[in-house]
Design a protein that fits this description.
By secondary structure, the chain is an all-alpha fold. The protein is built from six helices and no strands. The chain is flat and about 60 Å long.
Amino acid sequence: MFKILDRLEEEDFALFRTSFESGRQTPNNLRNVLLVGIIGQLLFALGIFAAADPFMHPEYNKRLLLTIQYVLTFILIIGSIIFAIPAIYRKNQIGQLIIGSLTLLNFISIFPYFAALFMLVRSVDLTEGAFIWQ
């Protein structure tokens, strides 16, 4: 496999440089994305908090899932605030890219999954008979 990778030239990776060279993915633009991501994550967290009714299916281990999700979101928000400071993101642009990617992952995939999970539990009456094939 490594022999195949050795045959790659620098021109094969030119596509990845276009976003940097065009100025679309500069540290200042990523800073703005992180700041908007903070607001989006707070709104999604509030929506999931409102959708996750603790009295609906109390045996379902919802509290653990919510705690993990809120702790990870809080860490990402703190990281977003830290890497939105120009003195920090100019020194550590890789950290800014990692926080931006994790924020995007949280915002696009994890939050909608939890929102659908908790809203499904509210709207569907799950009983033991629902799982038995008759």
